[in-house]
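User: Structure tokens for both sequences below?

Assistant:
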Amino acid sequence: MMEHRESHITHRQRSNEASFAWLLVCAVGAALFAVMIATQGALAQDIQDPSNGWFQKCGSVVDKTGEYDPIVFPNTPPPIGHRHLFFGATNISYDSTKTSLLAGGTTCRFKDGTTGGNFSAYWVPDLLLRDGATWAGGKQLNAYYRKGASSVDANDIVPFPDELKMLIRDRETMKTNVKWYCSNTNGEGNNGDLRERPYNCNPNGTYPWVTAHITFPQCGNGDTDTTDPQKYPVNDHISHVVYPSSGGCPTDHPIVFPRLFTTVKYNTSLGKGALLSGPEENRDPATGFHVDYFEAWEPGKLQFYIDRCIHAGINCNSTPPAG
């Protein structure tokens, strides 16, 4: 009886151990499944993060500062229009084409010093200081290419068409999100004080440069400019692209591009009372600020960064992805 009883007790212990092991396996399996589901959800959420993308720092092309504009006044030598500061493509000229821009150099760089194939040109009006005689000049422009609006699907984003030209003006829409603040030259560092007009920054502080932020539209119709009079009654260089709404890109501009925005750092801390170059009615920085963009990426490069950063759900910042 004792042996039987002991045998019986031993048998029951083994049964409990087996049951416990089975419950443990089930619990671990359920936990792993939950982690998988959560991870998939996180990945699905990450790919739609508006900040996914990359940026480059583009130095000022100092010797190209002047009164000309290859978008508004193409093939017209200076002086014409108002004084611009040029960034990016070093081969920029009044008669630029994408071919000519790609044949030159570029001041746009990733953190590791590589160009990434970006020979695009960016330009803005110069800033006339309050003495009425001194020009600020350009310190740096940062070009950000992001996933952008929450209403667009990251998977739908494609490169800009070859030689796309855009001119976005603050007075046309509040969606440009133009703000002035003080910043440094390292990424997005700024003092957090966003205003409608430039103001004085601390020349000896962490953020000494008067800086402007502006956002371009990211929905297009496939055109590269608005020069066709049959299609565009007004050649405003922006009607071929629009901002997405809460429902995404509209049916007449269904192509989704990266959201391009720039931060322009002027080479001064004296912003209070400063004016923009140009006609008197456009000199108020609160309404007259604008940026021109002339696309000139090497073939396949823009698609590469869209795939590796935006489509991959990664904020690459200023570090180029491998590959």
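Moving on to the next sequence.
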Amino acid sequence: MYEELVNVYRDELVESIHNGAIAVVSPDGKEIASVGQPEQKTYWRSAAKPIQAIPIVADGVADYYDFTAQEIAVMSASHSGEELHIELVRSILDKIGLDETALKCGTHYPYNKVAKEKLVSADKEPTEIYNNCSGKHSGLLALCKYNDWDIDNYFALEHPLQQTLLKYIALLTGVKKDEIITGEDGCGVVVYGLPITRMARAYARLANPEYLPADLEPAVARIRDAMIKNPEVVGGTGRFNTDLMEVAGEYLVAKGGAEGVFSLGIMGGPGITIKIGDGNKRAIPPVIMKLLAEFIDLSGEQLDSLSEYEEPLVTNHRDHKVGKILPTFELNKLGKLGGENFASN
């Protein structure tokens, strides 16, 4: 089912192995490369957030409430709970006439260490606004307010909001709505069980919205551009997702998710989704960096900026380098990759 993707070395020995699957799909839906069995299904969690944001833009909600590009970006984010992220979510809630008590995403401490320590030192517990999904939830509440839908149970499968989101997931992935396996995500809303090939297809079209119906193209391009131009909003300080788009955003749009899923789309090229079998996110950056070498000619300066992710170091509690993480897979090329890389300097 899964094949070896990454070896984790401690000194000379391979201490751990991360298996997984990879799907590379062109914007017209053709699978052009893979590792493992990419037709197997897994849940598409936070990596689906840009698709969940589409009706907020396409249905006129973003214009009605005058949402900024940064606010659209935070709706697609798994943010770190930094000051910028919290300010953006509060701004969205203010514009729609709600406060953070309307959020039903649950609580956890901010991913950002400084933001977490600030709460702890003030002897404060995190509220829903610090949840990494609060941007998405504020956007979904905006969609509810715009349509005069109930905001108390917006997370429920039968709610018109969740049925609307399922429609867009089906459209972008090409999976029929009634064939999508549904479950409950970490933040309480509906989550989607799909083959990773279909996740990759959706990102190929997020990056290349000209392959979508003409009435959706401007909205999808607006979400893509908001993410690319505001990578610090989509993730946060020191996060791979943010660093990747800060360095290579002229070529791609990317979004990670829980349990080892990461999706990206290349402008003028394919969509890619990886799934790490054991869900360990440490395996994601070296896999993505190796895949990018197949499709994008990054400059020496760009590669230097991302070098820490190519072969991530393993360190101990004394901050000594004790090993490294290396990708080991080879792509099974099923179709034409394009001869030359899709994007070059």
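User: Anything stand out in the second?

Assistant: Confidence is low (pLDDT under 50) at residues 338-345.
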